[in-house]
């Protein structure tokens, strides 16, 4: 659906991602136009961004996507703050430019709306926060995007207010119609948390191996001090304490499956039976052998 021709209002300075801008408090509304075929055009977000396809076709590339995604009218992409995507424009020409409307919104605004709706994002820290979401418009959300696009032809003093109202309605509709948990997780997406998620995955995959904090910091692309600070901020404990906790939790599961104490000790990354037994008793309140015996009684 054609929302208008913003190039009639802003003179074109580039054939790739020419931008027309309208601002409101905490919101930036843009229309991007591309007039020639091109591939792998980088695009970075500063705040959470809703991208609504207007005319033509894009192909979106991002590390969170297993394969490139076609992006066509009637659809929108939600991109978390501080993320970079790469975009192909397979159909763009001077006669039929590819057009996309973007709405950059402070994540706090979405959190406030969600709070008023009594919604929250339910996920554990181990569940990676999505950096991108692809949505299909309902009739209602499509109409809201059309109203937002109409702001490019509005010259009234209340234009900013109209944009704010339409943006709030869009957020309400999306939270109601889409998976609000995924949408809120994307809105609250933290790049530092994503880096730490890679560290947590590495720990889980190498629970039996020696785990060096300097190696984990490099994996997170952080200095040692920054890594300790971010890890404690997100996980509530030091890396060493977290690794010990996960090893003991793995050990508990193995003992519940009737694995031997010695086998469990070394399979979970401990170097000695005595250290394992002391740590296990401190965490579970009983020795490994007692834990096995009690579990066997429960199963009988």
UniProtKB/TrEMBL annotation:
A GO molecular function term, named singly, is: sequence-specific DNA binding
Q: Which SUPFAM superfamilies match?
A: Homeodomain-like
Q: Which Pfam families match?
A: AraC_N, HTH_18
Enumerate the spans annotated as HTH araC/xylS-type domain: 197-294
Which keywords belong to this entry? DNA-binding, Transcription, Transcription regulation
Q: Which residues form a coiled coil?
A: none
Q: Does the keyword RNA-binding apply?
A: no
SMART domains membership: HTH_ARAC
For this protein, the record's PANTHER family field holds: ARAC SUBFAMILY (PTHR46796:SF6), HTH-TYPE TRANSCRIPTIONAL ACTIVATOR RHAS-RELATED (PTHR46796)
The protein's name in its UniProt record? HTH araC/xylS-type domain-containing protein
Q: Which organism is it from?
A: Pseudoalteromonas ruthenica
